[in-house]
Backbone:
């Protein structure tokens, strides 16, 4: 039947209300209208029911024609009289009656008293009607009805079904209801409302372009802003608009303020600005980004806290770490100009040890949803490029990336056949599950058995990976955020996936990942892809033996990772394939290299400036125990050994070239430069004079080796010191000369006494 004919037939039916519900000897005959989406949207009454609500509550039945009559009634009083017949029919779902009533009330502006009377006729528990009233925005009535509730009762209503009322209000752009719900919830828990169901309040509002609700959420919830700014591909434009508006408002406040330097910001404003700074760092090429960044970081109220994340679970100095990760050098240097940032960075060696780590716990890496949204570290990109170059020929010979993935699907299917999923029925009997959905449906399982079987599929890592690459994936949640033709949108990553599969299955010797067993590599790949396939299923909570609540897989239909998450998680596969220890040099090795190069520099310099050796040795002996009383003259002597700017740049270039495939270039460059400038790695009780002398810095970095170098050079130059000069004042040239004579005399006497008679 054509859409037009269908709509015409429906129109005819919709005028025959009196024949649709009739009572004969207590039997109720019901007539429903079941429409396709287009016909539904064209219907003058049914189109009033929001699509979201229709799909959730009417999709399986259609709309009762008597409910259509209620929606069509222009008189609210007449509509209320229709309720009497509707509520008497026990076969009619009261939720459907409630929805149609609220739609009609919204359309015709019911007053609070009339609506309350109608609700009493339907007689649904308040906890059932509450989210519907929030969805349709009957805020005044909500305020009135909630006055009789105890605070804990209202809180229970708010949190039910994972904050359904709040999420629904955002979905329908009922901003007044959103604000009211926000105010009713404890302030320290409000971020939970926004974060519920993977920030669905924001995602739904965005999908429907509810601009007012979007701006309100970003303004009042730092957690929501943090979520949005990380998803650059999805919400980048929205965040950019919000950022520009915020910057404009702050600049206006600075102009209006008598003293812009003391501009006051609330905690909420500081947290908001923190994530806007993070967004600017994440997008190095954002128009006017550096100007915006400079402006925000010039506000003292921000610079005081910019080294701490509003999220206590984040690592310290999050912004600087991100600047390092994305190689935003200008942002990194600007942040390092802030004392708190620089001090924290220096204490932690500019996070180079963190950059070089590849976590041993695969699950911990892949379950971290936030880390999955961070940019690939440069050393990971370097590793991937090495893989891509090595397997380029193999992929071409195999017919391209698409054919390689076809071969991958075949091997995954074969592996599943060898080790399939099983489920246990109510009687405890185990049953093997087939590979494909058609085969699964052919089993014709009962509802209870089907639920157990699906859970077994969701828990089976190998099958999860196999079905991720199916189009369509019939195990996937149709409401998942990223669905293309019923499956995950992995196709933009086919070239990278082909490279990783070639690396995982490589059987040749001498390849870039040959040091790691093939089965281990394949397991890395399969496990990682399974985590990608179910990235957004990790919203369940489970109490462990230690009493703590941990996230766990909800064992529901697949909800795969978003695009940025896929990119990052594939990068983590690269790291796992390389297995860290085989390729990556440790941070300790880097420090040893720096120390050796600095020591070699001073050794060469002292060999060619022997006149400095004697006074330097005297001074060095004196400061081994305590260098707090160094004079300007002492520092001048030490300063003669300082590296020149050109020498520092040469050292930096050499070391960076050697380690750039191991560590991120930007933090590596900064760390090495500071090291050779005497500024890296501060230690407790380190006197400030150590930063003025590169030589003292060497002593601080490696006291034993520095002493060894001084001893060796002194032996080479045959320079002897009188013992009491070790801790005394600096000896003059005249004293040194006399001391030499005294030493010679003393040694001669000693030799004479020790000579055998």
Residues:
């Amino acid at each position: 039947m054509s859409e037009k004919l269908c709509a015409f037939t429906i129109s005819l039916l919709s005028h025959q209300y009196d024949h649709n519900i009739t009572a004969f000897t207590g039997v109720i005959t019901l007539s429903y209208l079941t429409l396709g989406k287009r016909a539904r949207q064209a219907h003058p009454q049914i189109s009033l029911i929001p699509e979201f609500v229709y799909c959730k509550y009417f999709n399986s039945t259609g709309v009762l024609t008597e409910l259509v009559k209620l929606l069509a009634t222009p008189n609210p009083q007449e509509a209320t009289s229709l309720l009497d017949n509707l509520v008497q029919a026990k076969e009619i779902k009261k939720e459907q009656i409630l929805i149609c009533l609220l739609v009609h009330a919204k359309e015709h502006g019911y007053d609070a008293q009339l609506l309350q009377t109608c609700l009493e006729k339907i007689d649904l528990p308040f906890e059932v009607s509450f989210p519907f009233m929030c969805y349709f925005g009957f805020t005044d009535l909500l305020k009135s009805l909630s006055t009789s509730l105890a605070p804990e009762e209202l809180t229970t209503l708010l949190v039910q079904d994972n904050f359904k009322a709040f999420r629904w209000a955002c979905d329908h752009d009922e901003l007044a209801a959103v604000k009211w719900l926000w105010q009713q919830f404890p302030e320290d828990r409000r971020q939970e409302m926004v974060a519920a169901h993977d920030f669905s309040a924001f995602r739904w509002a965005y999908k429907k372009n509810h601009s007012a609700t979007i701006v309100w959420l970003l303004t009042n919830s730092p957690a929501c802003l943090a979520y949005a700014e990380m998803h650059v591909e999805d919400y980048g434009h929205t965040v950019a608009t919000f950022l520009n508006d915020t910057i404009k408002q702050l600049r206006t406040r600075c102009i209006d303020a008598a003293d812009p330097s003391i501009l006051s910001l609330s905690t909420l404003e500081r947290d908001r600005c923190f994530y806007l700074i993070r967004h600017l760092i994440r997008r190095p090429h954002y128009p006017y980004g550096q100007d915006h960044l400079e402006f925000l970081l010039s506000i003292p109220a921000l610079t005081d806290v910019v080294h701490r994340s509003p999220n206590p679970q984040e690592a310290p100095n999050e912004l600087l770490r991100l600047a390092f990760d994305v190689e935003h050098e200008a942002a990194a240097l600007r942040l390092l100009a802030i004392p708190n940032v620089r001090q924290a960075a220096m204490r932690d060696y500019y996070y180079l040890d963190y950059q070089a780590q590849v976590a041993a716990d695969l699950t911990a890496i892949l379950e971290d949803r936030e880390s999955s949204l961070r940019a690939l570290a440069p050393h990971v990109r370097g590793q991937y490029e090495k893989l891509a170059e090595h397997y380029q020929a193999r992929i071409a010979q195999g017919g391209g990336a698409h054919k390689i993935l076809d071969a991958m699907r075949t091997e995954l299917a074969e592996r599943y056949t060898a080790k399939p999923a099983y489920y246990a029925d109510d009687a405890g009997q185990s049953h093997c599950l087939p590979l494909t959905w058609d085969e699964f449906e052919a089993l014709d399982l009962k509802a209870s058995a089907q639920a157990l079987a699906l859970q077994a599929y969701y828990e089976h890592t190998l099958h999860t990976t196999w079905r991720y690459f199916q189009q369509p994936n019939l195990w996937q949640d149709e409401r998942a955020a990223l669905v293309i033709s019923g499956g995950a949108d992995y196709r933009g990553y086919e070239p990278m996936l082909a490279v990783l599969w070639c690396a995982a299955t490589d059987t040749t010797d001498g390849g870039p990942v040959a040091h790691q067993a093939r089965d281990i590599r394949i397991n890395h790949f399969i496990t990682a892809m399974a985590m990608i396939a179910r990235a957004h299923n990790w919203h369940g909570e489970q109490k462990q033996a230690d009493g703590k609540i941990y996230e766990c897989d909800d064992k529901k239909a697949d909800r795969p990772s978003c695009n940025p998450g896929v990119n990052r998680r594939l990068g983590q596969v690269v790291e796992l394939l390389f297995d860290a220890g085989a390729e990556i040099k440790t941070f300790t090795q880097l420090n040893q290299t720096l120390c050796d190069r600095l020591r070699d520099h001073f050794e060469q310099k002292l060999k060619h400036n022997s006149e400095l050796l004697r006074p330097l040795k005297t001074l060095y002996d004196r400061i081994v125990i305590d260098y707090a009383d160094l004079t300007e003259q002492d520092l001048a002597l030490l300063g003669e050994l300082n590296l020149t700017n050109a020498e520092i740049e040469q050292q930096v270039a050499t070391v960076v070239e050697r380690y750039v495939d191991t560590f991120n270039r930007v933090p590596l460059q900064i760390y090495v430069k500071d090291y050779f400038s005497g500024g890296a790695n501060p230690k407790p009780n380190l006197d400030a004079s150590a930063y003025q002398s590169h030589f003292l810095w060497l002593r601080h970095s490696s006291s034993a080796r520095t002493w060894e170098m001084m001893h060796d050079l002194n032996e080479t130059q045959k320079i002897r010191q009188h013992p009491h000069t070790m801790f005394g004042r600096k000896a003059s040239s005249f004293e040194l000369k006399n001391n030499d004579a005294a030493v010679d005399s003393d040694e001669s006497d000693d030799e004479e006494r020790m000579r055998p008679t």
